[in-house]
Design a protein that fits this description.
The protein is of the alpha+beta class and 84 residues long. It has four helices and three strands. It has one domain: YefM-like fold. The protein is elongated, with a radius of gyration of 19 Å. The mean pLDDT is 85.
Amino acid sequence: MHDWPLHDAKNRFSAVVNAALAGDPQRVTRRGKPAVVVLAVDEYERLCHLEQTHAPTFAELLLDIPQDDQEFERLSLPARPLDL
């Protein structure tokens, strides 16, 4: 993954997009800190689908509730990559 300062990414946006389309996500930094990642739509959709397939269902969450005096152990939910 290549890091681009924001001003360089603006000036060379076509190169950023072309690299992402070639399968190499591009990280854009702002004030030296990672800000965003540019990736191809097919990779974004693959990641979204992967997240959905690993998320517990409502039924699984209900079944995880203890039926007696056992301590409740919450399933960890994956973080959402992007809310668009």
